Amino acid sequence: MKCISMFAETFKDRIRQEYEDWMLHGEHELTAGRNPRPPPTTIDLEWIVKAWDSIPKEAISKSFKTCGVANAVDGSEDNEIHCFKPGGPVPTGRNLLKQARAEKQIIELMEEIDLAEDENNNVYDSEG
Questions:
Q1: In terms of pLDDT, which residue wins out, 75 or 43?
Q2: Residue 42 belongs to domain spanning
Q3: Exposed/middle/buried for 70, CB within 10 Å: 0-12, 13-18, 19+?
Q4: Across all residues in the chain, what is the average pLDDT?
Q5: Which of 47, 51, 52, 61 gives 14 a disulfide partner, CB atoms 3.0 to 4.6 angstroms apart?
Q6: Does residue 27 fall inside a structural domain?
Q7: What sections of the sequence does the record tag as coiled-coil (predicted)?
């Protein structure tokens, strides 16, 4: 699931509404064949800004957490990741991520212990 897909429908609906309002009430230039020209780029951009502003910031933030992009690195928000939920594509993902974090912590602790032992034994890097 892409993060933007969480609110894309709302965004598109708002732009569609703006376009329909413009078609009904806006001023239109006509082509030589008497067809309406598309709206000017400045109007398109206004619609985009209005559509973006209509999406609650919490919805945007939640969408990134649901996709696992902006979650707390300590794992406290892993339950919000959509694909890790029961019935999701990777229901064991939360446990796998927890295990990977634990393994990383162990490696980091071992490296710290090695550095401390080297310092205690007066072992120095040949470059230092």
A1: 43
A2: 3-70
A3: middle
A4: 85
A5: 51
A6: yes
A7: 99-126
